[in-house]
Amino acid sequence: MIGRIPRGGAAGCAAAVALLAAAPVVLDLTPYSHNLLTLAFLMIAGALAWNWMGGYVGQVSFGHAIMFGIGGFVSARLVLSGALPAPLAWIAGGLVGGVAALGAHPMLRLRGPYFSIATIGVGEAARLIFTYWESFTGGSSGLSLPIDPILKYQLYWWSLWLAAGVAAASWLMRRSTLGLQLLAIKSDVEAAADVGVSATFYQDLVFCLSGAVVGLTGALYASYFAYIEPADLFGFDRSIGFVLMAVIGGLGTPFGPILGAVVFVLLRQSLLATYPQLYLGLYGGLLIVIILFEPLGLTGLGLRTARLVRRLRASRSAARAA
Amino acid sequence: MSLLAVRALSRSFGGLRALDGVDLALAEGEILGVIGPNGAGKTTLFGVIAGSLPPSAGEVQLAGRHIGGMPAHRIVRAGVVRTHQIVRPFPHLTVLENATVAALHAGGRASGPAPSRAAEVLEFVGLADRADRLPGTLTLAARKRVELARALATAPRVLLLDEVIAGLAPAEAHALAALIRRIRDERGASIIMIEHVMPAVMSLSDRVVVLDHGKRIAEGTPAEVVRDPQVLAAYLGPGGAP
Amino acid sequence: MARFIDLVFRAILLAGLYATMAYGLGLIYGVLRVVNLAHGGILMAGAYLGWILFDTWHIDPYLSIPIVLAASFLFGAALYRVLVVHLPRGAAGGPASLLLLFGVWLVLRNAAYWLFTGDDRTIRTAYSTRAILVAGSYLEVSRLAVLAIAVLVPIVLHVLLRRTYLGMAIRAVAQNPDSCAVVGIDVGRIYTITFGLGTALAGLAGLLWATIFSFNPSSGGSELLKSFVVVVLGGLGSTFGVAIAALIVAAAEVFAILVLPSYLTSAVGFVLLVLVLVLRPGGLFGQRVLG
């Protein structure tokens, strides 16, 4: 069954988080690694939240950058105006992101390709509108936040807790009756209605939660980089990023997007100097391969290898006994 | 007052009148059979009553409460649930999970956590030993029971069965027919069943309604209906009654 | 008043371009029930092909139409045979086909960046920027040429679909692929040809588009969206519907200049898309399958 991790897995995850939390101090990470990990944690949170819609409910959104951008700019504005300290500004960003997601309600009854294409349209329209909404986003020049090295250093842990929290929520959602109902909606929305599941309600709920988390991620991202511009936060590439991270990691699996996000960030970082555009083409190719051969992405690949290893071990011990 | 009352129910698809002013009443504790030639509108009738389709005209009342036109998921919570002619279990959920999803929507008519109620329903329909299997690995007879279990898990007051017996071997058909009777006797559900398998309909139903071309052409006890010349004409063609 | 007539002409000419863009997408969706998310990428590729033929070998863009058509057809046929054929048909293939073709678009985009860099390009021949005076408005030759082709394409399509055996087979497969297999139609071959035709039209549209607008490897997204609006609004298989829908979309964009700042006019297409999808996904003329 999808999502069953072996016993002791919970302890393993907790240990991993503890290790990561201790790493900057214990391992004396370079600023480069420290920053890279922070970014990775943020993208993990975003990809996991996207997966709730794209993987659990089955509605593939190409417009999640809207919530990311809204969260980022709302939070940045609040920090700039001094109205709220950073952590509260982040929460505000997340909340507004969630509310924005509710605006998608009329689109949510569209199925499959219609929904996805509608999200491309809304995403692009939003990008245009926000790019020229100078009083809010600063136009194409964007916004600059005061540089705060301490906050940036601490964002490592803020991001880590966010990522860990979202991962735990993903796990719980998957195992709960909510997860079952989402899977029912994804498999057969009409049959789901015929046994009492309200597709509109649950889609609204999940989209709102997904939007809130992605908004929160955008808010932390804004504080982290201290300079944000609409083309980056609201861009189509940003939306594509979430899709790629989740699908390559494992669409619909509770932890696949973590893998996808890590690989994505590392790949993009290593190609940034040499071939900045190549990472998209690479991911495009990877996407094709995954759709055709391993729909569960890297997670599926991992599960298959694990099964193979188990079978090899079993046949070897059987041969030895014979 | 009937438990379920359908008055002048109509449903058109463009120019096609699938249902044309159908009246129907289901009494509490009754098993009502619905028969008729192919294309008579039987499944459309279920679709409208259960909320999968909105009616074009007419009304549906459950114990006096208007449910016509309500979306399917709310009608399920009100206490009316349907099964599908071609079974549609959720393919990626186990049998138990299929029932659990439905058990969540019993509208307050049942108490206790959904998973345990689902398990109990599986026990009732005889699927307890296959609770962790995926529907795709089961036989058709078993999948029909999954469909049934799912519907039962919503603790329905009215159960709409769409050709659950058709396509089964005689032994399985007998077993399922007995199960249907037990549902009425033990689980407090009144049943409307569409069926082509005449022996089943005739032995299970208290009353039978006959549809043809979207209209109700006859109603009565199984024995009465079988002798009705209009019914015979509908099935065998005009002048074809032996 | 003169301004109004000018806008009307602009809308008609733009509609020609949008209609040409939409036919390819509509054909693939109508027959294979697949939304070709790579449509924008193929448009972009057609534009670059035309540009490279013009820039390096000085082939007039209108003369290179057969080359672009052939190359795009072969690409599409290969794309279908190698990749798309492995997808499950129908609703079950939903997100999978979207994502697969999206991946193809990303690869095309990346290839274009690698081959041509990210600079904006356009195709301008000596005569294409000349304008002819018609009823008080100056109409560019390039746009008039696009309109002429936009009128030709549905005629050719109509003849193909109604008067040839191939066209009959395509229409039959669109309606009921299983029955077709039973009567001996090679459904796989028909799908391959149809997909190729769809991409050929997309490539052609890209070439034409390149003669009017500038483009770069990231182009194609908004064109995909506008094509989709036209297809959904116009209904499947109704060439008349596509023409009307293209007019509506073009007119909305052109006349929006009167009320919106220029940078927002492209957003009109996107807003129209969402409105159409939410309000009338069946299109103006209802969903009709080819035939």
Helix content of chain A: over 70%
Task: Sketch the major β-sheet of chain C.
Answer: 2 strands, antiparallel
- The residue fraction in helices of chain C comes out at 55-70%
State Rg of chain C: 19 Å
What is the H/E order of chain C?
HHHHEEHHHHHHH
Spatial strand arrangement across the major sheet of chain A: 1-2
**Major sheet strand order of chain C:** 1-2
Dominant shape of chain C: globular
Largest sheet of chain A: 2 strands, antiparallel
- What is the number of helical segments of chain A per DSSP (H or I, 4+ residues)? 15
Number of domains of chain C: 1
Q: What percentage of amino acids of chain A are in beta strands?
A: under 5%
Strand tally of chain C = 2
Determine the mean pLDDT of chain A.
Answer: 89
Q: Mind telling me the C-alpha Rg of chain A?
A: 20 Å
End-to-end separation of chain A: 32 Å
Describe this structure in words.
The complex is a heterotrimer of chains A (322), B (242) and C (291). Chain A is an all-alpha fold and 322 residues long. Chain A has a domain at 16-235. Helices cover 79% and strands 1% of the residues of chain A. Chain A has a two-stranded antiparallel ribbon with strand order 1-2. In chain A, helix 2 crosses helix 12. Chain B has 242 residues and is α/β, with parallel strands linked by helices. Chain B folds into 2 domains: 4-79 and 156-236, P-loop containing nucleotide triphosphate hydrolases (Rossmann fold), CATH 3.40.50; 90-150, no CATH class. Chain B has helices spanning 42-50, 72-78, 95-103, 114-125, 140-152, 170-186, 198-204, 222-227, 229-236; strands at residues 4-13, 16-26, 31-35, 57-62, 65-66, 80-82, 158-162, 190-194, 207-212, 215-220. In chain B, the strands form 2 sheets. Chain B has a 6-stranded mixed beta sheet with strand order 6-7-8-3-9-10, sandwiched between helices. In chain B, strands 2-1-4-5 form a 4-stranded antiparallel beta sheet, covered by helices on one side. In chain B, a hairpin with a 2-residue loop joins strand 9 and strand 10. In chain B, helix 4 (114-125) crosses helix 5. Chain C has one domain (2-218). Chain C has a two-stranded antiparallel sheet with strand order 1-2. The mean pLDDT of chain C is 84.
Concise synopsis of the structure shown:
The complex is a heterotrimer of chains A (322), B (242) and C (291). With 242 residues, chain B is α/β, with parallel strands linked by helices.
